[in-house]
Structure formats: C-alpha cells, structure tokens
C-alpha cells in the first residue's frame, strides 16, 4: 500500500480534504488514494438514504418539514438493518453454555468420508433430468427416448445422488443414435428453478447464509 | 427508565418472585410518566456496608455483597430501590417474603445488559478533580509502589470517560479526555484513539468491544502492601467517589510478595481486560502428548511416546531421543486416550506414520551450531492479494488463499495434482490390482495448479487435513468450506459465523476443526456435523488466530483484545488466559512436546508461555513489525518467526525454556522474573527482498520452508 499522498490544496475539493482529515484523525496514515473517493461515495449514499427516509417519516407524521426526530428515527431504523454488529457477549456466553453441555458425539469407525447429511453438502448436482410419461409397453428391442422438458416440476425429485442419473431419465448425448423416429418428439433440457439440495460451487453465488 | 423496569420485572418473574413482581408492577403503573426522564441516582454500597436504600414496604430489595467488586447497579426513578446483578457471592433477600437460601445469579442476559448502566458517582464536573487528585497521590507515593499503582490510571480513565459519555455530559467528557489522555501508556494509544471518537451515548451502542469493556471488570494485580496504601488513601472521606468507581469497575487481584517493577508490569499488561486473575490460570491442563498407537513398523523401533515421563515439570532435555524410548507408564500430564473421541487409524494413516518415522530417522538435528536451511516460496505477481498459506505435513502441496476469493493449490513435488476419475470410468477399472490408488486417478486432469472457486469474499485462512484428503478455507463471507483434494470440488459449506472468519485449522488427528472470527467466538466443528460442536465465547474482541494443541484436547485462540485463551475441547471451558501482548495476536505455535506456547502479535514481540503453570516464561524482542508466522522445529529445538518486516528470525528454544527455575513457579505470585536475553537467544536473522513472511513450515527432515507474496515497495 502506498503512503497517502495528500492532494495539493488547490486541486482537491473541500470534502475530499475533510475526508482526508478524518482519516488522519482516526489514525489511518497509509491508504490508497482511491479510498477517499470510496469513503466520500459511501458518505453521500448514507446521508441521502437517511434523509430520504426522514422525509418519508415526516410526511407520514403530517409534519410540514423534516426535523431532528425524523432524522433520528431514520438513523435508528437503518442501523438495525444495514450495520448489524455481532451478538452481545452475554448472549454468546449463553449459547456457548448450552452448546458446550452436550458431550462430544462418538465417531463411528470405518464410515468412509465423514460428511454431513447430503442436504447440507454441496455434492449434489444442481440440475435434474426429468422424463415425461413414456408409452407404457414397449417391445424388448425398442428403445424409447424419453422426452425431456423445460418448465415447472411436476414430479417429486428423487433424492440427489452423486451425479448418476436415475434409470428413467437418459442423458441426451447417450441416446442420439437410438433407432426410433425422432420426428414429433420435443427435446428440451429441464433446469429446475428450485434447487433440491444446496448450491454447487459456482463462482459469484452469495456464500453467506443467514 | 422504562426499559430498566421491564428488565427488572422479567428478572423477578424468572426468579419466581411473584409477589414482588406484582407489587412492582402495580407501583410502576402508578408512577407512569414519572419514570420518563427522571433518573435519580443512588450511591451504591460503600465497601463493607450493605446498601440499605430507602425501600417502600413490600418492594423487592436486592443487596449486593461487597467483595472487591460488586456489580453495576441500575436505578429506577423515584422509587430509589436498588437492584443489582450479583456475582456468585451475592444474596437476594426480600423484605417481607424471604426466599430461602442464596440465589446465585449468573449472567442474566437481557437484564445485565440493561441494568449495567453507569451510576452517577457524584458530580460530573468534579471528575477531573478526582482524577488529578489520584494522580497526585500516586506520583507522590514510594517508588516501589508507584509502578503498581500506576496501573490504575488507564482503566480508571476509560471508565470515568465512558461514564461521562453515557450520562450525556459531552463537554465534560471532552475536556476530561483532552486533559488526561496524554498521560496514559503508549501501548494504549490505539484504544484511546477509538475512545476519542466516542463522544455520544449513541456511539457506544454499536461498538461491541466497548460495551464488553464496560460490563466486564478490568483486572489488576497488585501486591498487598500497595493495595493497603491505596485503600487507606481512597477511603478518606473526600476520595470516596473514586473508591466507588474502583469498586464497581475494577477487580483487584491481591498477591503477597514483592511489589512488581515497572518492567515486569509492562511485560504483562496491555490487554483490553487487564491481566488474568490467578485463579483463571489454575485449572489443570493436560499438556502431554497422546500415546502413539503401537503397530508393526518394518524397520524402525516402536512408537514415540509422550516425552514427559515423570509428572514433575522438568527442564526440557535438549537431546531427547524420541524414537526408541518406550515408556509404559501413562504420562500424568497427558490426557486419557479416550478423553475426546478421535477417529480411528486407517491403513493409509498407518502408512503415513511409517513414512513419517522413516523421515524422522533422517532428520537433521538442529541447534545453535546447526541452523536449518530456509527455502522460501515467493508468490510472484500475486495481484489477487495473497492472504493465507498452508503446507501439508509431508510438504507435498501448498495452498494459497487470495483476496479475490479463490483458493489455489500447487504441488511442490514433481508429482502433479490429479483428480479422481468420473463414476462411469471408475466402474471400468480393476479393483483388485495393487496400484488401484493410481488407477483411480485421471491422468487427463493432471496439472501443477488447481484453482478452487466458491467463496464470495477474501480467503483468510486455509488448512490441510493431516491425511491430505481435505482442505479447509475460511473467508470474509462468513463460511468455512471443505474441499476434497481428490476431486478438487467443494464438499460442504459450514455456516455459523455470520461475520468474517479470520482463521481455521484442522485438528492434528483430522475430523475436528476450529474456526475463529469477527463475532468474537471460536467454534469447534466436526466434518460430519453441519453445526458446531463447541462454542468458545469469552473474548472481548475478534478471534484472529486459532490453533490446536498437539494432543487435540485443547485449542488456543488469540484475539484482537490482546489476550490468548486456552480452551478445553471436552467441555468448552477456558482454562488459561495469557495477557502481555500490546496488539492483536496473529500467530500461535505449540511446541512439539505440548508444554509451551509461542505467540506473536502486531507489537513485534514473541512471547513464550508455560501452559502447565500458566506463566509467561520468555519474551523475544527483535522484530519490528507484525509477526504472522511462528513455528517450532520438529523436535522443538528452534523457534522460527516470520514477520511483516521481511525477515525470518531463528531463536534458540532449548535455551529459552531451560533456564526456568521451579522456585519461581511455586511462589504463586503469578509471574516470574523474565531474563533479558533476547539477544542471546537470537540465532539468525534472514532478510527477504521485500517479501513479508506469511507462513513457516518445518519439513519432516527439519528443512524450513517459508512462504510470502512479493510486494514491490
């Protein structure tokens, strides 16, 4: 990190100078120059959010202008929403006491990879193949290619396994050469909108739960 | 105060004091709006005398027993009844209905938070007078006492300032701060800067650390003579106010013995909560190592046993031969084998142990004459921002956690990283062949580097499992992720901390892991439970560093409140508190024999602690910047430390631990005289070319590996 270069007084706008002074007062001496811009943006966004909320509250109370009480209320509501702080110490001590009372669970020997139940893992595939009702009887030699459809799920999904498709569904690539006329059959791949179990590790998905 | 009233009612209800609650409720309704802004203050009990406040008949009265520290009291406007949260030694009696026996009230969550309001100990404008009076007294006292009594300045200053702020005397608070903040010790400057920005009561609400500081007692350790002197002075009439403040917010741990010198005190103070009470460090800790299981080893002798054969704290023998010392006695300092459930030894683990022993036979014996070679892995062009590094025990893989939320694994040996074949291919291989473990690997995926995506925030901690099958990473997004090193995919995301997780580590036996984060707790997890097994709560600020003891029964956590705590995995109790650092702790290392702990912090000092006795036994000065890496050599002869000042320093651990005299321990004063021998212990300083050292690792043959990211300034 480079040391802070104070912009020369004639070129920096006044609020940037104020922000630099605030950083100096808080004892922060080394920061990248863009930190000031970021802090200013944040300050602007915060203040406008608060004032907008305050306007809403004052108009709700049928006041003619915004006063300090409205602003105070706006600050309070926003604090509870965006600036959450970790739980207080006594609460932590309490749950710690509860949690620490249960004895440590015994470990089952020889149980393979020790992972939580599947629904808490990220090992399930995040897609599901669905087959529509195929024709009931088929001769032994005839291979029916099931239809795959996009859209809402109508049947209950089977419990997710580690990637092996169930017997009914057939991946599209495997049966391309099936000796069945494909005319009139619609092939679409279904991507369920709701995930059956967890989410896989694709980048960008929010990771923090509540 | 409406809130206070509600809390008191709840408390009464919970303690089954129905009648009192009834009465209070009735009276409260009568008072109605009077409670609004009117906070009449009542002086809390002066020492030795139980408070007898004016009590309307039938109202519940709660007395606080005065030891050296009654707890804070809240007030109810108008009625002048006193309710207080008691320490375990207080009683609750009622004038009228007598509740049998003493009711021990532990941490009542909601009540204590609300009722821990500061009392007005007299006129706010006189605070400066009180403080300067005390200052004058202490400066005029005898030299030998002055150092000890000066410890009072800081906590008193902070508490008085916070009291003024809390009771909304802003101008007095500001002038009080202006006048006296320069007198405080230099190592408190960071805290004072934070305090200077707290000028209103609303500011205090968001700052959890300050709230904890307010409600917990600052511990001071003073010799009996100094204490008598102080007490006598403060109990004179005009100084009663300060005495009340001392009573309320400080806990004075008195010891019999010589008053400590300034140097001794400076070594041990610095944490946010003062020092540690002596009885906090008296619990028995099983610091010995677990017995290695016996099994047939082709070449070498049998297992390594715990090295403490006798129970007495011995001087650490420099050339102890681990291989071949068969002690059939159970080491009294070692925990029983089944104290905590541990996973069984698999065949692959046994093979690993055999390898380990073979390597151990070829290990270089280190010492002052034979220093280790250092091999430094520099991460070049790490624009992603290297934030965490770990190396496997057998030094075959390195993992780097980066600020762009990726986790990258490299193979250090010529053998590349491969992932397992897909299920379809696996069904085709011959399962009975000898090299089935090779065949399951997919050659097409061989590469030197694997990148793991999944986190949504910078990765602050990484840890390999001892069997090299799993990798853990913890991140600012609040989750800890378990990755498989056989498929290089993410297996589980453990959610529990909702705030950045700063550090994580696997247990030396696998299966358990610990994580510590911004929410000021450390959690113990097992890989097959989606919720933590243990929660270690007690720190006043973020937990920045978490390490397992070699016997996996204890966890050390270092925190931003500048203390290190040792927790027992079995029941979650805090068994040791170590104070002395002047900045947040960023590195911890247990010695291989389990007896000692080395810690490094932003103040550039490495402190050495004896776990069994709970004492600081060494201080290594030399680094000029934060120490992020500490590691003992495989046999514990050398301690290596790496820091932000771009150096790796090697210290003589044998010498540091062998000069301990048992007499000092048994005086039970809680401290020993630290020798000023940092220079003698320093064996070497090795400078890198502007690369801060982030990780250190001794290979099984005692070659030192170091890692860091090149930073160009």
From TrEMBL, chain A:
Locate the compositionally biased regions of type Polar residues: 188-197
List the residue ranges of the region (Disordered): 188-210
What SUPFAM superfamilies does the database record attribute to this sequence? Histone-fold (SSF47113)
Classification via CDD domains: HFD_TAF9 (cd07979)
Q: What is its main location?
A: nucleus
By what name is this protein known? TAF9 factor
Q: Which domain of life is it from?
A: Eukaryota
What Pfam families does this protein's entry cite? TFIID-31kDa (PF02291)
- List locations, semicolon-separated: Nucleus
* UniProt-listed PANTHER family: TAF9 RNA POLYMERASE II, TATA BOX-BINDING PROTEIN (TBP)-ASSOCIATED FACTOR, TATA-BOX BINDING PROTEIN ASSOCIATED FACTOR 9
Automatic annotation (TrEMBL), chain B:
Is ATP-binding one of the keywords UniProt gives this record? no
Gene Ontology biological process terms in this record: transcription initiation at RNA polymerase II promoter
**Compositionally biased, Basic and acidic residues: which spans?**
320-331
Q: Please name the SMART domains in this protein's record.
A: WD40 (SM00320)
Location within or outside the cell: Nucleus
- Intervals holding WD repeats: 379-420, 452-487, 494-525, 536-577, 578-611, 620-652
Positions with biased composition (Acidic residues): 297-308
Molecular function (GO) terms for this protein are: RNA polymerase II general transcription initiation factor activity
Ranges where the TFIID subunit TAF5 NTD2 domain occurs? 122-250
For region Disordered, the annotated ranges are: 297-351
Keyword annotations for this protein, in alphabetical order, are:
Nucleus, Repeat, Transcription, Transcription regulation, WD repeat
The record, for InterPro entries, names:
LisH (IPR006594), TFIID_NTD2 (IPR007582), TFIID_NTD2_sf (IPR037264), WD40/YVTN_repeat-like_dom_sf (IPR015943), WD40_PAC1 (IPR020472), WD40_repeat_CS (IPR019775), WD40_repeat_dom_sf (IPR036322), WD40_rpt (IPR001680)
Q: Respond yes or no to whether keyword Flavoprotein is given for this record.
A: no
Tell me which domain of life the UniProt entry assigns to the organism this sequence originates from.
Eukaryota
User: Which Gene Ontology cellular component terms are annotated?
Assistant: transcription factor TFIID complex
Q: Which Pfam families match?
A: TFIID_NTD2 (PF04494), WD40 (PF00400)
* Subunit structure as annotated in this protein's UniProt entry: Homodimer. Component of the TFIID basal transcription factor complex, composed of TATA-box-binding protein TBP, and a number of TBP-associated factors (TAFs), including TAF1, TAF2, TAF3, TAF4, TAF5, TAF6, TAF7, TAF8, TAF9, TAF10, TAF11, TAF12 and TAF13. The TFIID complex structure can be divided into 3 modules TFIID-A, TFIID-B, and TFIID-C. TAF5 forms the TFIID-A module together with TAF3 and TBP, and in TFIID-B with TAF8. Component of the TFTC-HAT complex, at least composed of TAF5L, TAF6L, TADA3L, SUPT3H/SPT3, TAF2, TAF4, TAF5, GCN5L2/GCN5, TAF10 and TRRAP.
Family membership, please give it.
Belongs to the WD repeat TAF5 family.
As for what it does, the entry says: The TFIID basal transcription factor complex plays a major role in the initiation of RNA polymerase II (Pol II)-dependent transcription. TFIID recognizes and binds promoters with or without a TATA box via its subunit TBP, a TATA-box-binding protein, and promotes assembly of the pre-initiation complex (PIC). The TFIID complex consists of TBP and TBP-associated factors (TAFs), including TAF1, TAF2, TAF3, TAF4, TAF5, TAF6, TAF7, TAF8, TAF9, TAF10, TAF11, TAF12 and TAF13. The TFIID complex structure can be divided into 3 modules TFIID-A, TFIID-B, and TFIID-C.
Protein name, please?
Transcription initiation factor TFIID subunit 5
Biological source species: Ploceus nigricollis
């Amino acid at each position: 990190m480079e040391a802070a270069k104070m912009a020369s007084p004639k070129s920096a706008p006044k609020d940037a100078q104020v922000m630099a002074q605030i950083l100096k007062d808080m004892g922060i001496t080394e920061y990248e120059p863009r930190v000031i811009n970021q802090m200013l943006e944040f300050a602007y966004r915060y203040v406008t959010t608060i004032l907008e909320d305050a306007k809403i509250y004052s108009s709700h109370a049928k006041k003619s202008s915004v006063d300090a009480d409205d602003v105070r209320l706006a600050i309070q509501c926003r604090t509870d929403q965006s600036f959450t702080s970790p739980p207080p110490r006594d609460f932590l001590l309490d749950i710690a006491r509860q949690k620490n009372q249960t004895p440590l669970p015994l470990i089952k020997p020889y149980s393979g990879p020790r992972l939580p139940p599947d629904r808490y893992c990220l090992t399930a595939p995040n897609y599901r193949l669905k087959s529509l009702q195929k024709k009931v009887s088929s001769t032994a030699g005839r291979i029916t290619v099931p239809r795959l459809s996009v859209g809402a799920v109508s049947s209950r999904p089977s419990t997710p396994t580690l990637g092996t498709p169930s017997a009914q569904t057939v991946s599209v690539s495997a049966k391309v050469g099936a000796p069945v006329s494909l005319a009139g059959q619609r092939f679409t791949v279904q991507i369920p909108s709701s995930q059956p179990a967890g989410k896989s590790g694709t980048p960008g998905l929010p990771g923090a739960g509540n | 105060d409406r809130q206070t009233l509600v809390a008191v009612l709840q408390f009464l209800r919970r303690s089954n004091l129905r009648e009192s609650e009834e009465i209070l409720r009735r009276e409260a309704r009568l008072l109605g709006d009077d409670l609004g802004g009117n906070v009449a203050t009542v002086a809390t009990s002066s020492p030795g005398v139980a408070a007898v406040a004016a009590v309307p008949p039938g109202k519940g009265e709660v007395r606080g027993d005065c030891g050296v520290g009654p707890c804070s009291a809240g007030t109810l406007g108008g009625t002048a009844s006193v309710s207080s949260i008691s320490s375990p030694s207080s009683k609750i009696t009622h004038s009228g209905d007598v509740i049998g026996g003493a009711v021990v009230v532990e941490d009542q969550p909601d009540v204590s938070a609300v009722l821990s309001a500061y009392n007005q100990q007299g006129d706010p404008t006189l605070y400066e007078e009180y403080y300067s009076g005390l200052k004058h007294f202490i400066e005029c006292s005898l030299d030998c006492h002055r150092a000890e009594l000066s410890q009072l300045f800081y906590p008193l200053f902070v508490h008085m300032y916070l009291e003024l702020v809390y009771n909304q005397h802003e101008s007095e608070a500001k002038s009080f701060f202006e006048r006296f903040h320069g007198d405080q010790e230099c190592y408190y400057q960071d805290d004072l800067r934070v305090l200077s920005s707290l000028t209103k009561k609303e500011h205090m609400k968001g700052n959890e650390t300050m709230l904890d500081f307010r409600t917990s007692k600052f511990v001071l350790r003073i010799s009996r003579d100094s204490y008598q002197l102080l007490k006598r002075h403060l109990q004179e009439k005009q100084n009663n106010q300060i005495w009340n403040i001392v009573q309320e917010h400080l806990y004075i741990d008195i010891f019999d013995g010589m008053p400590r010198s300034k140097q001794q005190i400076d070594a041990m103070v610095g944490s946010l909560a003062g020092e540690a009470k002596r009885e906090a460090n008296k619990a028995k800790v099983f610091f010995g190592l677990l017995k290695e299981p016996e099994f047939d080893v082709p070449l070498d002798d049998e297992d390594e046993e715990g090295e403490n054969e006798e129970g007495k704290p011995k001087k650490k023998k420099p050339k102890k031969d681990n291989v071949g010392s068969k002690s059939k006695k159970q080491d009294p300092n070692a925990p029983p084998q089944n104290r905590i459930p541990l996973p069984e030894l698999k065949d692959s683990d046994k093979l690993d142990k055999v390898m380990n022993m073979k390597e151990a036979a070829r290990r270089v014996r280190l010492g002052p004459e034979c220093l280790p070679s250092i091999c430094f892995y520099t991460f070049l062009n790490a624009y992603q921002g290297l934030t965490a590094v770990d190396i496997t025990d057998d030094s075959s893989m390195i993992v780097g956690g980066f600020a762009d939320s990726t986790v990258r694994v490299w193979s250090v040996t010529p053998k590349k990283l491969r992932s397992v074949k897909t299920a379809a291919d696996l069904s085709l291989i011959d399962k009975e062949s000898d090299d089935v473990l090779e065949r399951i690997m997919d050659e097409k995926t061989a590469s030197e580097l694997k990148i793991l995506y999944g986190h949504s925030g910078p990765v602050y901690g990484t840890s390999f499992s001892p069997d090299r099958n799993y990798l853990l990473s913890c991140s600012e997004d609040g989750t800890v992720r378990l990755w498989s090193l056989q498929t290089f995919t993410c297996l589980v995301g453990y959610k529990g901390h909702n705030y950045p997780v700063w550090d994580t580590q696997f247990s030396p036996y696998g299966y358990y892991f610990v994580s510590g984060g911004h929410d000021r707790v450390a959690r113990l997890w097992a890989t097959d439970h989606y919720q933590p097994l243990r929660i270690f709560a007690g720190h006043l600020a973020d937990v920045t560093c978490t390490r397992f003891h070699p016997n996996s029964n204890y966890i050390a956590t270092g925190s931003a409140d500048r203390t290190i705590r040792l927790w027992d995995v079995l029941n979650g109790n805090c068994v040791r508190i170590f104070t002395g650092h002047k900045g947040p702790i960023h590195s911890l290392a247990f010695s291989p024999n389990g007896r000692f702990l080395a810690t490094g912090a932003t103040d550039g000092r490495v402190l050495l602690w004896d776990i069994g006795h709970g004492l600081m036994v060494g201080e290594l000065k030399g680094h000029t910047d934060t120490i992020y890496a500490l590691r003992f050599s495989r046999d514990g002869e050398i301690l290596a430390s790496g820091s932000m000042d771009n150096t790796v320093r090697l210290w003589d651990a044998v010498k540091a631990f062998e000069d301990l005299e048992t007499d000092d321990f048994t005086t039970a004063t809680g401290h020993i005289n630290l020798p000023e021998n940092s220079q003698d212990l320093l064996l070497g300083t090795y400078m890198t070319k502007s690369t801060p050292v982030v990780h250190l690792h001794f290979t099984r043959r005692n070659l030192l590996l170091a890692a860091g990211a090149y930073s160009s300034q």
